[in-house]
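I would like you to sit down with the record closing this message with an eye to the fold:
=====
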Amino acid sequence: MNAPFVSSEDTRSDPAAPRNTQRDPRYDILFEPVRIGPKTMKNRFYQVPQCTGIGHVRPGSNAAHRAVKAEGGWGGLCTESCSIHPEVNQTSSTNATIWDEGDVINHRHMVDEVHKWGALAAVELGAGGVKDNLFTRYVAPAFDRFPSGGIPKVYTYPAAEEDIDRVMQMYEDAARRSRDAGFDILYVHGAAGVFPVHALSRHYNRRTDKYGGSFENRARFWVEALERLKKVAGDDCAVATRISIDDLAGPWGLELRDEGLAFVEYITKLGLVDMWDVIIGGSGEDMWGEDSGPSRFYKSNHQAPWNSAVKAIANVPVVGVGRFTDPDEMARIVRTGQLDIIGCARPSIADPWLPRKIDEGRVDDICECIGCNACISRYNMSNAIICTQNPTALEEYRRGWHPERFEATPHAKTVLVVGAGPSGLECARVLGRRGYDVHLCEARDTLGGHMQDVVKLPGLAEWARVVHYRESQIQRMANVTLMRGTGLVTADDILEYGASRVVLANGASWVGNGLGASGPDPVPGVDARLDHFVTPEQYFAGKPIGDRVVVMDSDGYFMAIGIAEALVDQGKHVTLVTHYETVAPMTERTLEGYNIRRMMREKGIHERVGHWVEEVRGGPGAVEVVLYDRYRDGYRRTTQPETGVYPRRVGDAVEVLACDTVVLCTARESKRELYDALVARKERWADVGLEVVVRSGDCLAPRYLADAIFDGHRIAREFESVNPERPRAIIRERMIWGVETIPKLGDHVL
């Protein structure tokens, strides 16, 4: 086999070399059983309530997602928020339901899968509050007349006491169905704006009857709900509640050391819970971002003071979260009395086998969550969650993928992977696990591609785990050869190499002409070859930037705002211009948006949203960026179509920004040259034994990091396909016409 590339290292190692398979005694405390009411959890690892974005719609996927975690050693696993009745539902997102016997059947499947591995199954029973009910079209009762879920003109109505009695019966009926499904732990959901939260809140609860006024009256709803669950649970189930212990709104909301801890003390005296599940963040628009804090703003265990305060007064086990991935930190948290149980949602998605790896002495194999909140972004788009670190998340059932098991290749052919960015690294990792003879070449001396630059942006250092995990895994594979510093390879180099199959993962680059905003054309006057224009690649390479900077953003995610923040930290005057209606709109979905806007105000980053650049004039020292409002044209269009004539009044109003440098975070384009050159030489493929060339990640189409990594993973899983670029079929979970429905039309709703 010819090998024209010069390798700076050979990562081959002996796969049979002895490895530690004994648990480190420091972590023994994490594997102690925990008594939760009448149930015993086998260890201290617990997957707290975690949304999947598929809820009741895809029960097979939900079951398989949690089954893999149970296999991976989690002692307990909870559903997401589970609606107890169609009258108190939430449909702006797809969550679980426990309305009827059909739900019992589906949940029982998940519970059975969890129980196979000796884990406990929990259900978080959620009821209304300010939810929208757009699916069922019931008018939802609440503690007052509220705009429902923030949706204009969709209101709840003030619940009478008889309505509250009906809601209590809903809790009891849902708890009974949950018990029948086999759940071990029954929750009253008390966070994120549901009924119990608003009942306890001084702000939301303005009632004057027995459910309003005094602290005890405002706590009454929550108490009665717990009593209903206790009644059903008996000796069969434990009862828990999740509480947002602090709204983080100061005196305008629930505060830890005011009524937060007072409520814990009150419920403790009444003996109504067997476990406390503690989070933070209130019922406001950015509530979730303060709990599931992105790593840009919040590091691991940022909720420690709140967790510790609850633990200090509770007489039952306390579980809390903090994006825990480090077993040393987990053990310290238990030893110091901060928590009894290590709660995880995002870390359990990133590595479903995290507890098992600790137990088996394989701590260096843990795939750590990076806190990018890609999972939450898809949930916020009413879609199934994804994970940057774990491409198998929510693919366990529909694609049959397991995060730790890979089908061995029938033929250990030689594969050349070009480009060791995120997609190439993942593709090489999975091909290596499958037994292929993998040769991974990288033009630079460092691995990671553009991630080497991304992690230099403010707050994104933890994203380096994407590269570190995959590099460490590859370095232990005897069948993967890593070649760094090869320089850019050519089509002829590849044809001479002798590989049977080639994966091109050589990425994408930022355009330098302003292309990529609301129109298809480049922006006149923009040319990154000139001194006063800078692309992100040029910025990271050190191209000089003046004191007054305009950042053009049509990418809409982290790059433009990251560079803007870095520049203003250097003392530069920065204005970010975007055609979107808000800065970095993708960060709204990743829960970063509110704190990004706070950061911008605090650091003085100026913005022009809903605008784009008509042209850039002048040169070094005298640059003029000409902006236009995207809505400057007339709102009335002409009544008759006329060829070649724009059908509205054409606006011509502009705004001119003077600056020294323009940063171009506009569009990215795939690096097609190598692929096109190989296709042009296709007649030579058979002569050199080359079967197929596929593109992976940004090389095929620029996209989000999680999707590029998924692409590399999927290609490697399906590598025996005639053309692995094209995905194989997946299982679709859906109702089939003609099948009996549960419930039937006209059945009484309990």
Observations:
- The mean pLDDT is 92.
- Residues 161-181 form the longest helix (21 residues).
- The CA atoms of residues 491 and 673 lie 9 Å apart.
